[in-house]
Specification:
Elements: H1 2-13, E1 29-32, H2 37-41, H3 49-56, E2 61-62, E3 69-78, E4 81-82, E5 88-95, E6 98-104
Length: 127
């Protein structure tokens, strides 16, 4: 009887939904392009594709059927659950090789985490 109870406890302990002492590590998974509102504000109609790629990075999706459209998708999963506040889609439309319009949402810049590429580099301290 003890062996049966021990086997049942071992079997149930592997199920995370039934285990009250769930100490498993849940990885934070970020997927896609983290495009900030600051970078989107620098976009101007008439910019070339290479200029847009420089500001926003390589798009996550380039569709062969919609060659004049780039999609920048971002999502963040914390603790195994999708964070609905971080699920954003930004779409950039081109007319030929020039930027026509931008639609969608961008991420707010995280304070102190992202560096502005246009800002001058900090000076090194002299000993």
């Amino acid at each position: 009887m003890r062996a049966l109870i021990f086997a049942a406890v071992i079997a149930v302990s592997g199920c995370s939904s039934l285990n009250p002492l769930d100490w498993t590590h849940k990885v934070q998974v970020q997927q896609g392009n983290y495009v900030t509102a600051d970078a989107v504000a620098k976009l101007k109609p008439g910019m070339t594709r290479s200029q847009v790629r420089f500001l926003l990075g390589t798009p996550l999706l380039t569709d062969a059927f919609h060659a004049n459209r780039w999609d920048y998708k971002y999502s963040d999963a914390k603790g195994g659950k999708l964070d609905s506040n971080s699920d954003k889609l930004l779409t950039v439309y081109f007319n030929g090789d020039t930027l026509e319009r931008v639609e969608g949402q961008a991420q707010a810049a995280a304070p102190g985490k992202l560096l502005d590429a246009s800002a001058p580099a900090p000076e090194a301290k002299k000993p």
